[in-house]
Amino acid sequence: xxxxxxxxxTRWRVLxxxxxxxxxxxxxxxxxxxxxxxxxxxxxxxxxxxxEKRSLVRLWVPREARAFARIRHPNVIRTLDVLLDGDAPWxxxxxxxxxxxxxxxxxxxxxxxxxxxxxGLDLVAALxxxxxxxxxxxxxxPSNVLIAEDGRAVLTDFGPAGSRAGVxxxxxxxxxxxxxxxxxxxxxxxxxxxxxCDLWSLGATLxxxxxxxxxxxxxTTDDALHAADAGTPDPPVxxxxxxxxLLGLMRRDPAERMTADEVRRRLRRIAPASRRATVVRTGTxxxxxxxxxxxxxAFADQRPTPPVAAPSPSVTVPSATxxxxxxxxxxxxxxxxxxxVAMPRDWRPAWKDGRLTCTAPGGNPVMGVSAWTAPGDPVxxxxxxxxxxxxxxxxxxxITNVPDTAGAVxxxxxxxxxxxxxxxxxxxxxxxxxAYAVDWRAPAADWSADLPTLLTVIPTLRPI
Length: 464
Description:
11 helices; seven-stranded antiparallel beta sheet; 3 domains; globular
């Protein structure tokens, strides 16, 4: 079983989990040679496949991933390496701080037609770039669309076989992989696969985004039968000007399906002129927040600059749950007996004004822990704090809720006059009926290497 700290193929260090999909897990990782942050996908195989078909898919995954690596486009996740380690193939991809379109829909409900049109334009551009490289995606769906923190919609997680040769080989072996509610009917029933299959899936994805539900809601004992049984999608209710595009993309007969050029032309009429500004940002969009004392440095007022994509890893650290003392760490107890936390034995602790600050030998990284007392939504509190910061060349990376908790995280970078470019994080960590603010600061170049310490410390935080 893969775990944080594992080394894949003697080069790629696993930092922590990012996502779980139908064909494997995705991990945050770091290149041990360069320090670059990456996403590592371990390609699992459906248990429903026979041993013979599993062997075929396992053989084709590395070959097909190399075909995906030919695609160079800002709306497509880039494949950096393909390797075999243990019993499964691994794909190394660029890391883009983001949230999936599916998570966005679940969080906000149906999206406005103009916003969906903007996302659709990015996805048409991504698919066109893939087709130009002679690659089909074959699994376009909301969970495979990332909304990056710089506003892009980015297509990820290409199917196990996307080149025409790979698709033909798997189809001949009667292996059709994909999500039934988004797979074109001709793939399921006629074993026909071409660009028009991706267009069907695009239509189903945009339908889900604007309507807040999948295109076929009728009861059926087999989702894979939806295309033949339903014939056409449920009539859109919220799509407005997008309705002709959705119905044109999801025509049962591929020969009658709307072309990519026509889709692009129609979406441009619907998307706002400044469409980058309309695409969702991670977390609550408020203009941001209050001075904090972090590692002995007071952050004074400075107007925040627009968010930009992170150059290296953003990671949601786990919520604090009771664990034993990790090797090489020592317990530090707050003087008033409110909480305790494990810190590396060789770090220097200091207590001042209700805040624990621990500093690594050499001065970096630095971690701070204090009680979190701000009322209301922590995202709002963090963005209020951000607006009052005075850091040189400040750049927001993200301010967002931590999934499945009442916590939140603010991550950013800035210039330090002595240490150079720095990366920092403040996370609100709920523990029982209390919450704590954990601050972390490290040189940007060392961010990947230092993150395992942060990931080790957070679960040890607990009230006394």
